[in-house]
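Students often ask why inverse folding is considered easier than folding. One informal answer: many sequences map to the same fold, so there is more than one right answer. In these notes we will look at a single instance of the problem. The structure comes first.
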Protein backbone atom coordinates (compact mmCIF):
# COMPACT_ATOMS: atom_id res chain seq x y z
CA UNK A 1 0.00 0.00 0.00
CA UNK A 2 2.86 2.35 0.85
CA UNK A 3 4.37 1.64 -2.57
CA UNK A 4 1.08 2.59 -4.24
CA UNK A 5 0.83 5.92 -2.42
CA UNK A 6 4.50 6.63 -2.96
CA UNK A 7 4.03 5.89 -6.65
CA UNK A 8 1.14 8.35 -6.92
CA UNK A 9 3.19 11.06 -5.21
CA UNK A 10 6.22 10.33 -7.38
CA UNK A 11 4.10 10.51 -10.54
CA UNK A 12 2.58 13.86 -9.52
CA UNK A 13 6.01 15.22 -8.61
CA UNK A 14 7.45 14.13 -11.96
CA UNK A 15 4.62 15.99 -13.68
CA UNK A 16 5.30 19.07 -11.51
CA UNK A 17 1.87 19.03 -9.84
CA UNK A 18 0.12 18.06 -6.61
CA UNK A 19 -1.62 14.73 -6.11
CA UNK A 20 -5.23 15.17 -7.31
CA UNK A 21 -8.34 14.49 -5.23
CA UNK A 22 -9.23 11.63 -7.58
CA UNK A 23 -5.85 9.99 -6.99
CA UNK A 24 -6.18 10.43 -3.23
CA UNK A 25 -9.69 8.93 -3.30
CA UNK A 26 -8.44 5.99 -5.35
CA UNK A 27 -5.62 5.38 -2.88
CA UNK A 28 -8.04 5.67 0.04
CA UNK A 29 -10.30 3.04 -1.55
CA UNK A 30 -7.32 0.74 -2.13
CA UNK A 31 -6.35 1.19 1.50
CA UNK A 32 -9.86 0.26 2.68
CA UNK A 33 -9.84 -2.85 0.51
CA UNK A 34 -6.37 -3.78 1.75
CA UNK A 35 -7.40 -3.41 5.41
CA UNK A 36 -10.61 -5.41 4.79
CA UNK A 37 -8.56 -8.25 3.30
CA UNK A 38 -6.15 -8.18 6.24
CA UNK A 39 -9.00 -8.26 8.74
CA UNK A 40 -10.65 -11.14 6.89
CA UNK A 41 -7.35 -13.06 6.80
CA UNK A 42 -6.83 -12.41 10.52
CA UNK A 43 -10.33 -13.62 11.37
CA UNK A 44 -9.91 -16.79 9.30
CA UNK A 45 -6.62 -17.45 11.08
CA UNK A 46 -7.87 -16.79 14.62
CA UNK A 47 -11.23 -18.52 14.17
CA UNK A 48 -10.08 -21.32 11.87
CA UNK A 49 -10.74 -24.23 14.21
CA UNK A 50 -14.18 -23.07 15.35
CA UNK A 51 -15.16 -22.28 11.75
CA UNK A 52 -14.08 -25.77 10.68
CA UNK A 53 -15.93 -27.34 13.64
CA UNK A 54 -19.14 -25.57 12.61
CA UNK A 55 -18.67 -26.61 8.98
CA UNK A 56 -18.03 -30.25 9.94
CA UNK A 57 -21.14 -30.30 12.10
CA UNK A 58 -23.21 -29.04 9.17
CA UNK A 59 -21.62 -31.62 6.87
CA UNK A 60 -22.35 -34.47 9.25
CA UNK A 61 -26.03 -33.60 9.06
CA UNK A 62 -26.02 -33.38 5.26
CA UNK A 63 -23.61 -36.21 4.38
CA UNK A 64 -23.90 -38.39 7.47
CA UNK A 65 -23.88 -41.76 5.65
CA UNK A 66 -21.14 -40.82 3.18
CA UNK A 67 -18.97 -39.25 5.85
CA UNK A 68 -19.20 -42.37 8.00
CA UNK A 69 -18.14 -44.70 5.22
CA UNK A 70 -15.54 -42.56 3.41
CA UNK A 71 -12.43 -40.63 4.46
CA UNK A 72 -11.78 -39.90 8.11
CA UNK A 73 -12.91 -36.69 9.75
CA UNK A 74 -9.34 -35.82 10.72
CA UNK A 75 -8.10 -36.03 7.13
CA UNK A 76 -11.01 -33.91 5.98
CA UNK A 77 -10.33 -31.36 8.72
CA UNK A 78 -6.74 -31.03 7.52
CA UNK A 79 -7.95 -30.53 3.95
CA UNK A 80 -10.27 -27.69 4.96
CA UNK A 81 -7.58 -26.14 7.13
CA UNK A 82 -5.17 -26.25 4.21
CA UNK A 83 -7.65 -24.44 1.93
CA UNK A 84 -8.28 -21.82 4.60
CA UNK A 85 -4.52 -21.17 4.78
CA UNK A 86 -4.45 -20.71 1.01
CA UNK A 87 -7.39 -18.30 1.19
CA UNK A 88 -5.68 -16.35 3.98
CA UNK A 89 -2.51 -16.06 1.89
CA UNK A 90 -4.54 -14.94 -1.10
CA UNK A 91 -6.26 -12.25 0.98
CA UNK A 92 -2.92 -10.85 2.14
CA UNK A 93 -1.32 -10.92 -1.32
CA UNK A 94 -4.53 -10.09 -3.23
CA UNK A 95 -3.68 -12.90 -5.64
CA UNK A 96 -4.96 -16.39 -6.49
CA UNK A 97 -1.47 -17.62 -7.39
CA UNK A 98 -1.13 -19.85 -4.30
CA UNK A 99 -4.53 -21.45 -4.87
CA UNK A 100 -3.79 -22.02 -8.56
CA UNK A 101 -0.39 -23.57 -7.81
CA UNK A 102 -1.83 -25.90 -5.18
CA UNK A 103 -4.64 -27.13 -7.43
CA UNK A 104 -2.26 -27.58 -10.33
CA UNK A 105 0.27 -29.55 -8.27
CA UNK A 106 -2.40 -31.80 -6.71
CA UNK A 107 -4.76 -32.05 -9.69
CA UNK A 108 -4.54 -35.84 -10.04
CA UNK A 109 -4.68 -36.42 -6.29
CA UNK A 110 -7.72 -34.17 -5.87
CA UNK A 111 -9.73 -35.62 -8.75
CA UNK A 112 -8.73 -39.30 -8.65
CA UNK A 113 -11.80 -40.95 -7.13
CA UNK A 114 -12.41 -37.97 -4.86
CA UNK A 115 -15.55 -36.48 -6.42
CA UNK A 116 -17.43 -36.76 -3.15
CA UNK A 117 -14.52 -35.18 -1.28
CA UNK A 118 -14.63 -32.24 -3.67
CA UNK A 119 -18.32 -31.85 -2.86
CA UNK A 120 -17.52 -31.94 0.86
CA UNK A 121 -14.80 -29.33 0.57
CA UNK A 122 -17.01 -27.00 -1.46
CA UNK A 123 -19.89 -27.48 0.98
CA UNK A 124 -17.59 -26.80 3.93
CA UNK A 125 -16.30 -23.62 2.29
CA UNK A 126 -19.89 -22.54 1.69
CA UNK A 127 -20.65 -23.12 5.37
CA UNK A 128 -17.66 -21.00 6.37
CA UNK A 129 -18.70 -18.34 3.85
CA UNK A 130 -22.18 -18.19 5.44
CA UNK A 131 -20.80 -17.94 8.99
CA UNK A 132 -21.94 -14.70 10.65
CA UNK A 133 -18.49 -14.07 12.07
CA UNK A 134 -17.37 -13.18 8.55
CA UNK A 135 -20.18 -10.70 8.00
CA UNK A 136 -18.11 -7.54 8.40
CA UNK A 137 -15.46 -8.70 5.94
CA UNK A 138 -17.55 -11.14 3.93
CA UNK A 139 -17.01 -9.40 0.61
CA UNK A 140 -13.23 -9.62 0.87
CA UNK A 141 -13.20 -13.25 2.03
CA UNK A 142 -15.93 -14.44 -0.33
CA UNK A 143 -13.92 -13.50 -3.42
CA UNK A 144 -11.30 -16.14 -2.63
CA UNK A 145 -13.68 -18.65 -1.04
CA UNK A 146 -15.79 -18.57 -4.20
CA UNK A 147 -12.70 -18.74 -6.39
CA UNK A 148 -11.47 -21.87 -4.56
CA UNK A 149 -14.89 -23.57 -4.72
CA UNK A 150 -15.31 -22.81 -8.42
CA UNK A 151 -11.80 -24.06 -9.21
CA UNK A 152 -12.44 -27.34 -7.37
CA UNK A 153 -15.75 -27.88 -9.15
CA UNK A 154 -14.07 -27.21 -12.51
CA UNK A 155 -11.45 -29.84 -11.71
CA UNK A 156 -14.19 -32.33 -10.88
CA UNK A 157 -16.14 -31.47 -14.04
CA UNK A 158 -13.06 -31.80 -16.25
CA UNK A 159 -12.18 -35.12 -14.64
CA UNK A 160 -15.69 -36.43 -15.30
CA UNK A 161 -15.47 -35.29 -18.93
CA UNK A 162 -12.13 -37.07 -19.36
CA UNK A 163 -13.53 -40.27 -17.85
CA UNK A 164 -16.63 -40.12 -20.05
CA UNK A 165 -14.48 -39.44 -23.11
CA UNK A 166 -12.23 -42.40 -22.32
CA UNK A 167 -15.26 -44.64 -21.89
CA UNK A 168 -16.86 -43.49 -25.14
CA UNK A 169 -13.70 -44.33 -27.10
CA UNK A 170 -13.87 -48.02 -26.16
CA UNK A 171 -15.34 -49.85 -29.17
CA UNK A 172 -18.20 -52.35 -28.74
CA UNK A 173 -17.28 -56.04 -28.69
CA UNK A 174 -18.83 -56.76 -32.10
CA UNK A 175 -16.88 -53.92 -33.74
CA UNK A 176 -13.62 -55.31 -32.39
CA UNK A 177 -14.56 -58.78 -33.66
CA UNK A 178 -15.27 -57.33 -37.12
CA UNK A 179 -11.88 -55.60 -37.12
CA UNK A 180 -10.13 -58.85 -36.16
CA UNK A 181 -12.04 -60.72 -38.86
CA UNK A 182 -11.02 -58.17 -41.48
CA UNK A 183 -7.38 -58.97 -40.75
CA UNK A 184 -7.80 -62.71 -41.55
CA UNK A 185 -6.76 -63.54 -45.17
CA UNK A 186 -9.47 -64.78 -47.55
CA UNK A 187 -7.53 -68.05 -47.99
CA UNK A 188 -8.05 -68.80 -44.30
CA UNK A 189 -11.75 -68.00 -44.44
CA UNK A 190 -12.04 -70.43 -47.40
CA UNK A 191 -10.88 -73.29 -45.13
CA UNK A 192 -13.88 -72.90 -42.85
CA UNK A 193 -16.61 -75.48 -43.65
CA UNK A 194 -19.73 -73.89 -45.08
CA UNK A 195 -21.91 -75.90 -42.69
CA UNK A 196 -19.93 -74.87 -39.59
CA UNK A 197 -22.90 -73.17 -37.98
CA UNK A 198 -25.07 -76.27 -38.41
CA UNK A 199 -22.38 -78.83 -37.52
CA UNK A 200 -20.35 -76.88 -34.98
CA UNK A 201 -20.41 -79.76 -32.47
CA UNK A 202 -19.41 -82.22 -35.22
CA UNK A 203 -16.28 -80.25 -36.15
CA UNK A 204 -15.48 -79.38 -32.52
CA UNK A 205 -16.38 -82.52 -30.57
CA UNK A 206 -16.90 -85.22 -33.22
CA UNK A 207 -20.68 -85.44 -32.80
CA UNK A 208 -22.69 -87.01 -35.64
CA UNK A 209 -22.91 -84.71 -38.61
CA UNK A 210 -26.25 -83.21 -39.48
CA UNK A 211 -27.26 -83.01 -43.11
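Output (designed amino acids):
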Amino acid sequence: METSITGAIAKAKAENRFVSDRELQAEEERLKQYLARLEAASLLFNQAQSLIDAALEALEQKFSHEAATSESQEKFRLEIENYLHLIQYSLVTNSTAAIDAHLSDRKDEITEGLNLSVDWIVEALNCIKADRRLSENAAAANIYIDYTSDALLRLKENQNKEENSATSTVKPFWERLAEIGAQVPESEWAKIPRDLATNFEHYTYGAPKEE
